[in-house]
Amino acid sequence: MSIDFTFDAVRHLYLVQGKPVPSVTQVLHSAGLSADYSTVAPEVLDRKRIIGEYVHKATQYLDESCLDLETVDPEIQGYLVGYEKFIRESGFQPQLIEHRLIGRINGMLCGGTIDRTGAMAGKLWIIDLKCIERLYPAFALQTAGYELLLPKPVVPPFKYSRAVLQLRRDGSYKFTAYSDVADLEIFRAALVVTAWKINQNVDIQTGARTDLDEAA
Fold first, then answer.
1. What are the structural domains of the chain?
2. Among the listed residues 165, 128, 135, 175, the one whose alpha carbon sits nearest the alpha carbon of residue 149
3. What is the tens place of the pLDDT at every residue in 41-62?
């Protein structure tokens, strides 16, 4: 059963009946399981964020067969080449592309944007696109969150395979698959922690209480 929601792109918030719903990445952050970028300079992080946004949009347009190559910024052409190479060499056939959804996991609402689902080598895959060099353990949990949000496939083996596709500026790529079933249980536990914090009026981004009297 689909859940009606809106998405506030400015604040990056999923909303159900006007109330914020935690996203997969917010759940991991709230539980202390997100990737640690604290050693990366803020200006580098901001630049990578912008590149990632452009790469996601360009690859989306490519998969939807509406990409105008003349509009592609030279800064991201290498990443796009890497994605095209992956599609060509793997035979991956995208199905859901940049798919936003909200679902219930053990009765708890959670939102997310799944970069790709699709078929490859006789399996159904969830693939998250990354434009960074380092792999973080949190990426496995992120893909697990997406798997839990999606309806189970109706064909054997009745589950998704999960992976991260790292795209690099030099036109190369690295495909890393995740298969540990414990990833799913860890994400469920992280969502329980996040839901508890929300019920206790704790800001899941900062950890601060939101209902404290200023005079206290």
1. 38-182 (3.40.1350.10)
2. 128
3. 999 889 999 999 999 999 999 9
